[in-house]
Amino acid sequence: MEKRKKSNIGSTLFTLILLIVVFGFIYPRFSFGYFMKSVRENDTSSFSRDHEIKYSEQASYKIENEDYSDALFYQTVSVIPNTTYRVSCMVKTENVENFENTKTGGAQIAIAGTSEKSENVYGTQDWKRIELLFNSKNREEVNIAFRLGGYNDESKGVAYFSDFKMEQGAQDYDNSWYFACFVFERIDATYEEDGEIKHTKATMTQRNREDIYDDMSRLKRTIQEFSKGKMEITYDILTISDPVASLTYDEENGYYIDVYDVLESIQPYLEKTEYDHLFLASPFGDINMSEETGLPLWVGLGGMDYNGIGYSNVRLSQAENDYTLRYDTRINTFPEEVFLHEFLHTLERNAKEYGYEVPALHDYRQYGYEDQSYIGLKDWYEAYMQGEILEEDGTKVGLPEQVYSSKPAQLSNFQVATEVEGIKETTNIFEEVLSIIERTKYIFNQINHQEIEQTVIGEA
Predict the structure, then answer these.
(1) 356 near 400, Cβ under 8 Å?
(2) pTM of the model
(3) How many CB atoms lie within 10 A of CB 148?
(4) Alpha carbon distance 22, 20 (integer Å)
(5) Of 357, 321, 360, 361, residue with least CA distance to 338
(6) Please, are residues 409 and 84 in contact by the beta-carbon 8 Å criterion?
(7) Is 257 exposed, middle or buried (0-12, 13-18, 19+ CB in 10 A)?
(8) Is the torsion defined by CA of 104, 105, 106, 111 positive or negative?
(9) pLDDT tens digit sequence for 323-370
(10) What's the CA dihedral at 282, 283, 284, 288 to 10 degrees?
């Protein structure tokens, strides 16, 4: 009987020592508290807590990608619909490289499952503060993620994150938007096509400049008229003399100017002024040209986003017979159409993200509209902006009025900011245990939700 008691005491001591080792030495190094983890490529990323490389008293959160991957840790936080938020943290990077040298990957704050993100940090940089500004739109929950990689990117290297903070800002319901039209004087870019390195050059003409100034002036009047005064714009036309040296490619649109291709040139303007929409106007060379007409396959590209701000490409031809963007009573009396069309892609996207059902901007034929001589799709855009498009059942659809005051989140929204309990961190063993329980519940809820969805789909 005495031997059994000694055996039980020894077993208890061993268990206590094991618990001390686990919770005192091992668990603090690998515990991410209330955060969940996600990795795109298996066996390439590791997560840990670093007690030596840290910004403040708390151990930093470390992601190490040994090869190109997208790794993140996140928390699901509750938000109030149609409210501005700011999430910030300190970040430090070591030898962070992006796959194929993309400019959008790296260490960043993001909303998981979306392209919404903060500034991205790559290379080797000491501690710096980054922040994500976003509008919750019609959401009640978002997954706030701290990431090494990107929505469409993969990165390798090491990133440390620390000092998380979430704030709620004031919503700006003003319907006056501030546009920046960046006019790039020259294209002088090298690109690769079908495995061959090519070069394209083009220079903006005086006629191009005149067209831009005229079209922006006309756009201002048109937006106010078509929205029946529900929206108005002011704008800056900013000339950039630095040549555009790089272009971005995708299979659908070919080559275009991504914000990151020209960010170094336009960043000083973006830091000084809060713009609600950006136009990137440029000449073009011999890329994306039609073999039949010799004219560009497209002159406008829209619906793109840079850290919450919509932006559009507008390309200007040097051809004398191209009146796409030039006013002429005999040929084109609606030359601002390209600018309007591309901006409406941003409003179309915003409306859908706020939970509204709107017709697709390109579906004009389904509603009986046609591209007409002299005025293009002017009638369509006017009905679209006024919500006067007739459905078969007689109901009227189009952009909702609320979209005209749903502008991007800006720093000015946080002049009077309120810190909210969004990102939770553990500070003691008791909270660590609670975080384990909470994460376990979350995982089971996700599994049950997926099983319910699969059952419903199967029954359907």
Answers:
(1) yes
(2) 0.84
(3) 35
(4) 6
(5) 361
(6) yes
(7) buried
(8) positive
(9) 999 999 999 999 999 999 999 999 999 999 999 999 999 999 999 999
(10) 60
Structure tokens at 153: 């990117």
pLDDT in tens, 164-186: 999 999 987 899 999 999 999 99
Q: Pick from 334, 331, 358: which is nearest to 344 by CA?
A: 358
How do 232-240 and 176-184 pair as beta strands? Answer: parallel
What are the tokens at 371?
Answer: 């591209």
CA nearest neighbour of 73 among 48, 42, 43: 48
pLDDT of the residue at 432: 59
Q: Write down the mean pLDDT value for the chain.
A: 87
The residue assigned the tokens 């900011």 is 417
Measured between alpha carbons, how far is 390 from 379 in angstroms, rounded to an integer?
13
CB-CB contact of 423 with 164 (8 Å): yes
Burial environment of residue 77 by CB neighbours within 10 A (0 to 12, 13 to 18, 19 or more): middle
Single-letter amino acid code for the residue at 268: P
Helix (H) / strand (E) containing 262: helix 259-272
Cβ neighbours, 10 Å, residue 117 = 25
- What are 267's two structure tokens? 């960043």
Nearest residue to 342 (alpha-carbon basis) of 362, 358, 319: 362
Q: What are phi and psi of 87, to 5 degrees?
A: -115, 130
User: Which tokens go with 20?
Assistant: 């001390």
- Looking at the chain, how many residues does it have? 460
Q: Are 60 and 53 in contact (CB under 8 A)?
A: yes
Looking up tokens 């546009």, which residue turns up? 179
